[in-house]
Amino acid sequence: MNPIAFIYLACILFAIGSAAVLLRRNAIVAFMGVELMLNSANLAFVGFSRMHGNVEGQVMAFFVMVVAAAEVVVGLAIIVAIFRARQSISLDDPAELKG
Amino acid sequence: MLDLTWLLVAVPLASAFVLLLAGKRANPWGHWVGVGASAASFVVALIAFIQMLGLDSHDRAHSVQLFSWINTGELNVNAGLLVDQLSLTFVLLVTFVGTLIHIYAVGYMEHDVDRRRFFAYLNLFIAAMLLLVLADSYLLLFVGWEGVGLASYLLIGFWNYRSDYATAANKAFVVNRIGDLGLIIAMGLMFTAFGGVDFATVFSGAEHATTAQLTAIGLMLLLAACGKSAQFPLQSWLGDAMAGPTPVSALIHAATMVTAGVYLIVRSAPVFEGAPNAQLVVAIVGAVTLVFGAIVGMAKDDIKKALAASTMSQIGYMMLAAGLGPVGYAFAIFHLVTHGFFKAGMFLGAGSVMHGMNDQVDMRRFGALRAAMVTTWVTFGLGWLAILGVPPFSGFFSKDKIIEAAFIGEGWQPWVFGLTALIGAGLTAFYMSRLFFMTFHGKARWTDEQHPHESPAIMTVPMIILAVGSAFLGLILASGNRFVDWLEPVTGHAEHGEPVLSVPVITATTLILVALGAAFAWLKYGRADVPLTAPAASLATLAARNDLFQDSVNRAVLERPGTHLTRTLVYADAAIVDGAVNGTGGGVAKTGEAMRVLQSGKVRVYSLIMLAGTLLVGFFAVLGGK
Amino acid sequence: MFWVVATITVVPSLALLFARKAVHVAMAVVLTMIGLAVAYIMLAAPFLGMVQIVVYTGAVMMLFVFVIMLIGVGGKEDLTETIKGQKWLGLLVATGIGLFLTGVVSRVSLNVQEPPTQGNPTEIAGALFGRQVVVMETLGFVLIVAAVGALVLTHLPRLTPKHSQKEIAADRVRVGANPVNKPMPGVYARHNALDVPALDPEGKPIDESISRVLEVRHQTQSEEPFHAHLEEGGDK
User: Fold this and answer.
1) Residues of chain B neighbouring A98 (CB-CB closer than 8 A)
2) How do residues C143-165 score in pLDDT, each as one tens digit?
3) Domains of chain A
4) Which domains does chain C have, with CATH numbers?
């Protein structure tokens, strides 16, 4: 079983995650897409660590998980705060940067 | 020995400014200041003349440096005056005749509210004309040239509350402008060929320049002269210029400004000497205009317009003489001087007639005025005899000499030019006699309100003085070849040539033709009844009455294409130039608008752009790493 | 085995694109996370697989579910795209990324080593506390900051003055209600639940001492059986 297949899988997952970020209006669903992208990166790390035969990739993936958790915490807090202000979590509503 | 030459120009110019700036409070005495300024110029001219007579014939030219004018590296022009025989002749003519006309105008414009302004413009004219003939460079001459054009415009359109008078002034100015273009181009050519535009540089350079260069310069100078002297093809303005008050017609459009073209040609003799083709064109233009003016003059019923056509024709004679080379220059100037006297005299006489006939100008309403206005009749009659060329009056000496000179040469030229001049003399006799007889003889055809009376002394005395000049000046100047010798250092020595017909034959033929012309006019207009309205006419007469359709021709050939060209250029400017500029602005704005779509403020659009950018960067990074 | 893992990873993640309700999406992603944990275990990283389940599936996705509960649990999202061109461009970019990455990966020629490691906690601990100790401490700091940040972001500033006990008592007095708290339910030697009333000094039950909810639900009891009975053999 060639671990390279997992890397391909990781690429596909990354693509799906980025598609979700681009195409979904719900902020929470888009955020989940980001999480999926992070996870696919983790999968790639672990796959390569298996191929290299050392544990560095796994350590790296561990760190990514920690950071992703922290990021989810803060990101969801932001979404809650925005919801409280606008009563909506559609990504299309806030357009203050419109030129 | 103080050099007062600059006063010649300065005094009339200062007087003009004073009269213009002083305003209405100068009205009681303004005209006398004008007359005084002109007279002062004449006195200075006379002093200069007497001084010059005391000098040896070859020392007579002297230059007066006024100030340093243009000093660039390439072109250096200093403003200066050249006082030599030619310029002094003109100065004397302008100041003498000019002062007489100033005095006449005091009386003629007596009832006009704007008399002071009139004298200001007259003085301005005198100053500019004197500057023109005294300049020692083409550039300073051009200043005077423009100045007389300006004064002419102001004076023709003096009564500008009448729109047709104002239009006539515009017409004169515009046609003059075409001539000015010729002078500007000529100056440019001179600068290219000789490196300078003052007479000394040009004339010394003309000896070494190529024929092509000199021909080009000569033709451009001819164009300028045609504009100012109302020669074909720029002759259309002179008839309409009669819209100005009669003293203006007398001074500017008979004696002085229209002769500036002849001055230019004669002064540029060294240029024309090296360009025989240009000289030939000058002679042809003169011959054509001679006949043109005569034909038009035969059918005009307006006394001033008939005299204007006569002026055009006589200047044609002068141009013809100037185009014959050194043999003709002196005679051109001679005729210019005598013409100045008798034409100015006749214009003043016409003004006197109009004054007495309530400003009527239609000769068909004149007739039998000789009993009512004796002095006018006598002075006008002397001018008439002079222009006909009846000996011993001045016209005989000057015009005959031109006809003789026209017959000198080889090949077809003497025959064509000579016969043209000869026939022109006959035509001149006819139409001038027609004018004279219609006005002063025959039956009285006055309207009921007209009570012709003689003009006051202030008007008749100048007329008398001019008549005396018309009568005797020719005799005085021709005796002993005095005038030709006087001018010789400037015009160059003429090769003595024999005319193809012998001189007695020419003189006799001329006199016969003159007599025939006068007799024919007497039969038709002196003895027979003159109809009150112009009778139905043959095509030729109709053409002559309409100035040989000159305005229609000008309109079709020049004005319409010119207007179309201007419109096209304006459209091109608006569409292309402005379009390019505005288009650039608009394009930038539209690009901004297009770019604006990217700034929708929407998160997903931004994330799309970011991801797409990342993809591109990664793509190039991978490709670049190859 | 790989294909199983691949299926349970990819198929639910498509729900990210196609599901309407946010809760469905969250559940699908949970499934994906579990699939990924299995993948990790297959790749000789068992510790990481467990951590994946505990942290991601257990903590992170539950966080997502809590926030969905707070915010937008009901709405059916309309899947039609509002921004012009976004759908196609987005699909294009996503596909492009996928192809790009796959292309890059396909150029990788890496010899698969035998794993000398088993991915067990000991080895990872060795790496963590050995070579990467600085990173690990920093990450601890990051976590603290994240927690504090979440508190700060969701903190609602008090808009009205705090209604403390003093204000409650004052309100009661103003209205004329009983300023004192209601009495507690009865505490007896053999029963001290909330459903039996207390006795006043005269021995009668106090009705206010039982919650109204229990009365409405008929879940109260009489206090009779619990009265103190002084009977023979009572003071032994």
Assistant:
1) 599-602
2) 999 999 999 888 888 888 888 88
3) 4-86 (1.10.287.3510)
4) 1-73+120-146 (1.20.120.1200), 182-226 (no CATH)
Contact with chain A for residue C27, Cβ under 8 A:
no
The CA distances from residue A48 to B136, C13, C136, in Å, are 100, 22, 21
Per-residue confidence at C236, pLDDT binned at 50, 70, 90? Answer: very low
Out of B596, B601, B608, whose CB is closest to A95?
B601
Of B351, B313, B263, which is closest to residue B548 (Cα–Cα)?
B313
State how far residue B604 is from chain C, nearest Cα, in angstroms: 8
Instruction: Say whether residue A34 is in contact with chain C using an 8 A CB cutoff.
Output: no
Helix axes A27-52, A56-86, angle to 10 degrees: 180
For B202-205, the CB contacts below 8 A with 24+ separation are B202/B138, B202/B268, B202/B270, B202/B271, B203/B270, B203/B271
Q: Quote the tokens at residue B227.
A: 């504009």
Nearest to B96 by CA among B289, B223, B251: B251
Q: Which residues of C touch B622 (CB under 8 A)?
A: 100, 103-104
The per-residue pLDDT of chain B, averaged, comes to: 86
> pLDDT exceeding 70 applies to what percent of chain A?
98
Q: Which residues are CB-contacts of C8 (< 8 A; sequence separation ≥ 6)?
A: C31, C32, C34, C35, C38
Q: What value, to the nearest 5°, has the Cα angle with vertex A57 and ends A52 and A60?
A: 165
Indicate if the pLDDT at residue B81 is higher than 50.
yes
Alpha-carbon gap: B586 to the closest alpha carbon of chain C (Å): 25
Cis amide prior to B233 (ω within 30 degrees) = yes
Partner-chain contact A94 B608, CB within 8 Å: no
What radius of gyration do chain B's Cα atoms show? 30
Nearest to A99 among B599, B603, B608 (CB): B599
Look up residue B581 and give its two tokens.
């500029």
Question: What pairs with residue B137 in β-bridges?
Answer: B198
**Nearest-CB residue to A62 (from C51, C113, C143):** C51
Residue in B395, B295, B422 with CA at minimum distance from that of residue B336: B395
B607 contact residues in A (CB cutoff 8 A): 21-22
Q: How many CB atoms lie within 10 A of CB B480?
A: 9
Cis before B392? omega within 30: yes
CA-nearest of B294, B253, B336, B548 to B421 is B294
- Cα-based torsion angle of the residue sequence B402, B307, B124, B169 in order, rounded to the nearest 10 degrees: -120
Distance from CA of B568 to the nearest CA of A (A): 43
* CB proximity A86 to C under 8 Å: no
What is d(CA C44, CA C25) in angstroms, rounded to the nearest whole number?
A: 29
Cβ–Cβ below 8 Å for A28 and C91: no
Q: Does A68 touch chain C (CB under 8 A)?
A: yes
Single-letter amino acid, residue B233: P
Nearest 10 degrees: Cα torsion A84, A87, A92, A96 = -60
Tokens of residue B81, six digits: 């005056």
Chain B contact for A94 (CB, 8 A cutoff): yes
**Interface contact A18, partner B, CB < 8 A:** yes
pLDDT of C9 higher than 90: yes
B193-197, B218-222, C222-226, range with greatest mean pLDDT: B218-222
Residues 6+ apart with CB under 8 A from A56: A49, C127
| CA angle at B94 for the pair B88 and B96, rounded to the nearest 5° | 95
For residue range A21-63, what is the model confidence (pLDDT) as tens digits? 998 888 899 999 999 999 999 999 999 888 888 888 889 999 9
More confident residue, B506 or C52: C52
Q: Is the confidence at residue B1, as pLDDT, over 50?
A: no
pLDDT of residue B132: 93
Residue B251 pLDDT greater than 60, yes or no: yes
